[in-house]
Fold:
Amino acid sequence: MTRTQHIVVGHLYPSYLNIYADRGNIAVLSARAAWRDVELEVIAISPGDPTPAGVDLFYVGGGQDREQALVAPDLALRGEELTDAIATGAAALAVCGGYQLLGRSYRDQAGVELPGAGVFPLHTVAGDRRMIGDVLLECELEPGQPRTVAGFENHAGRTILEEDAQPLGRVVAGFGNDGVSGYEGCRVGRALGTYLHGPLLPRNPWLADWLLAQAIAHRTGEAAVFQPFEDVLEAEAHEVSAARARSRGGRF
Ligand code: GLN
Structure:
């Protein structure tokens, strides 16, 4: 069967950055695309590989300092290509370690300064205490459509947004970017960075659909309108996670 629509995901460093089963996010994107007759092609990008042309959505997961150090120089070399792709409408989702490395730099727990790709206007410095726990955010990716995002964070890095940077959301419960600003994540155009694992998308299906719609808009130049699914299990997962965040979200 030929599917009506085809989109391409560029998955950066799947064998290095995949903590907390972050690859589950790709499984969600791929299933929800297939249910809508959209074919999602996933291209793995390893260190040394050229950045493929025509990527509609870049994805990078989380990882420990050790894995981040292994891929950071390669990712920094792609900084201009990634920044250009996003400036011309490609979508992206970057989680935790990947989010940090799409910023300008990450100073890890050992004090080593890792170069970033410079896609997001922010930098990250590791602190002594890890920020661990369930998180609940409020965000408004489309004006007038407030939504919640639930997930789990575990990071030593404190991410500092530059003055004009747009956060992904406001922290309702949990630590977020740095434990003090009340903000979580970052958004540049159709690119999102966040500390939330879980993986993120199974319990926030509206966000998976938003990302798919952005990828289709990049491919076709037209906004994609999806019929919503019932998402009964997904809504339950979101509620369980949100309730955990409200009752014992990360705090020092
Ligand atoms: N190494 C980073 C930190 O602790 C990222 C960890 C992660 O991806 N969970 O800040």
